[in-house]
Amino acid sequence: MVNFVEAQKPLLKRLMRMAGLRPIDVEIEPGTTMHIWVPKHHVSKKTGTISPVEHGGVGVDEKNGAARRGGRKKSPESKPNVVLIHGFAAEGIVTWQFNFGVLVSRYNLYIPDLLFFGKSTTASADRSPEFQARCVAAALARLGVARCDVVGFSYGGMVAFKLAETRPDLVRSLAVSGSVVTMTDAVNSATMTRLGATSSAELLMPETLKGLKALLSISMYKKMWFPDRFYKDYLKAMFNNRNERMELLQGLITSNMDAKIPTFQQKIMLIWGEEDKIFDIEVAKKMKEQLGDGCFLHGIPKAGHLLHVERPCAYNRQLQRFLAYVNSQPQEEAAGGGAN
């Protein structure tokens, strides 16, 4: 019997290809491979292998290592780079299916699957957001990306914050929704108590129709009806690698004593659903205060945790405004650490 959730993926992949993106597998280290959708100029037409492009529009011929410059016309490599990092419930192209289309003409888009999502795997025992961030950075380095703006949602937002903290040379700006800088014991406990869940695994890794319906109910502002067949298909399609993903959830939690708010050099935009029940708008307001003058908050009414799915037009407009702003700043300011 056809799984309706899986059946949409060929269509999504076709749309991605029509938009000029291609899927590749990047080996980060032996045993660790990250699946990522990239602009097609990264893929050799002859061999189908990765053709990295150095920052500044310089390509590298993998066969002989010779550099080649696209001086005759403006190359696609000259467009700003934007990385979209998905949340915990779905891989990259499913998460960003309503958002990539408005960005792809102006930006070079990179849409990775984090480890244990989609086709990304690792033999490493490390389950921390730091390790996910290192792998994203390594994949981008393999592709020759030296500077980028990063967009993160939920779990992907925590990875994005860690990427910005550890690699300010790589990350120029951040746009984050439905996330926190660090998931502390206190934040986790308060969130689970408020939602009536005993653990994040119970909430985010449902095994029953009832559990999945509860998750979608608290994730969206508007109550939506789907047939049970849809929920069954979603459980089969989206919640694989259960043991490893539960370990990822355990790897998120940081002791209150060890937690600290980093000083970010980048401009940060918090785009929030005003009816987010998982990380409510008060969490976003407090985080904005902690992150200082370089952080901005934009609330979207009648939207919950899945605001980019519920109200994609409103989300896309704000994201486009922010990306246009950070990319309009003088290059010397951008090169100085992203505080532009």
Automatic annotation (TrEMBL):
SUPFAM superfamilies named among the record's database cross-references: alpha/beta-Hydrolases (SSF53474)
Domain of life of the organism encoding this protein: Eukaryota
Region feature (Disordered): 48-78
InterPro entries in alphabetical order: AB_hydrolase_1, AB_hydrolase_fold, Epox_hydrolase-like, Meta-cleavage_hydrolase
Domain AB hydrolase-1 positions: 80-312
Gene Ontology MF terms: catalytic activity
One protein family per Pfam: Abhydrolase_1
Protein name as annotated: AB hydrolase-1 domain-containing protein
Source organism of this protein record: Oryza brachyantha (malo sina)
